Amino acid sequence: MKFAKMHGAGNDYVYVNCFEEIIDDPVAMARTVSNRNFGIGSDGLILILPSGKADVRMRMFNSDGSESEMCGNGIRCVAKYAYDHGIVDKKEITAETGAGILTLQLFTNPDNRVERVRVNMGKPRLSRGEIPMTGNPREQVINQELKILDRTFHITCVSMGNPHCIIFVDNVDEFPVAKYGPVIENLDLFPNRTNVEFIEIISPTEIKQRTWERGAGETLACGTGSSAVTVACVLNGRTEHRVLNHLLGGDLEMEWAQDGSVYMTGPAVQVFEGDFDPR
Ligand SMILES: N[C@@H](CCC[C@H](N)C(=O)O)C(=O)O
C-alpha cells in the first residue's frame, strides 16, 4: 500500500490515495498504521477518495479505529495531496466529508506546492441533539457546570460535524489533560463520546489550546476543535470573532464570520511517502 505521511500543525495522519489503492478494512488498517512502535506512527488514517458530489472525498479514522465525521487538520492535508499529486488542478476545491461538503482555498509556494489552506468549516451546531448529548435535544450547553473526579468545570459544547466539549482553564501548559480528558471523553452525557478542548485565554484575539481527542488521546492540534473553541470563546464573551490559536504543534488562524461559518487557515505539510507491507 502506497501512503503519504502528512501533518497539519503536528496532527499527523497516514494518507492513502484511494483513487489508486483499495483498503478492505480501514478500521484494522488505522489501528495498524497508527501504532508508533509497530506501525508507521500517526494519530490515525485518512482515505482520499473519489466523490460524486465534490472534487474529493475524505474518510478519517482515529488511531483506535473509530471513524470520525470530520478532521480539520486532515482536510487541509487532503487538499494539499490532491493538488500536489494532480488529482485537482485548481486552487479552490470542494471536499465531501461526514460533516457535509466543504470549500477550501489553496495557497501555494514558488514551487507550486500547497503550503497553507483556508477551509470554510461550516456552521457550528449547538443543540444537545446535534452534538449529540443526552438531555433536552433543543437545549444549548454554554458554561454549564460539570463535576468530575475532584473538580467542577464549566463546559460549552459545540459540534463541527463531530462533538467537542470546551473548558477554559487558567494555565493550559500545566493542566493535567491526560487525567480529565479521557474521563470527559467517555461520560454517558456524550453517547458518541467527545473530543475535549482545554483553553487558556491570552487576550481577546489570542488563545492557547490543548486537545484530548476522541479515539486518539492528546494530539498536537485539532482543527475541528479549534473551530468549536472559536465559537465557544465568542459565546462566553471571552474573545472577539477572529483569534490566533496557539496549539502544541503550531498556530491556526480562526474566524467565526458574519455569514455564520467558521473559517480556519493553517499549514499542510507532507513529511514523507512510502510503501507499507505488514508481513
Ligand atoms: N484532529 C482532528 C479531529 C479528528 C477526529 C476526532 N478525534 C474525532 O473523533 O472526532 C481535527 O483536526 O479536526
TrEMBL record:
UniProt main location, coarse: cytoplasm
UniProt: substrate binding residues: N11, N62, G72, N73, N162, N195, E213, R214, G223, T224
EC number assigned by the record: 5.1.1.7
A Gene Ontology molecular function term of the record: diaminopimelate epimerase activity
Location of this chain's protein in the cell: Cytoplasm
Subunit structure: Homodimer.
Similarity comment text for this entry: Belongs to the diaminopimelate epimerase family.
Name of the molecule in the record: Diaminopimelate epimerase
Gene: dapF
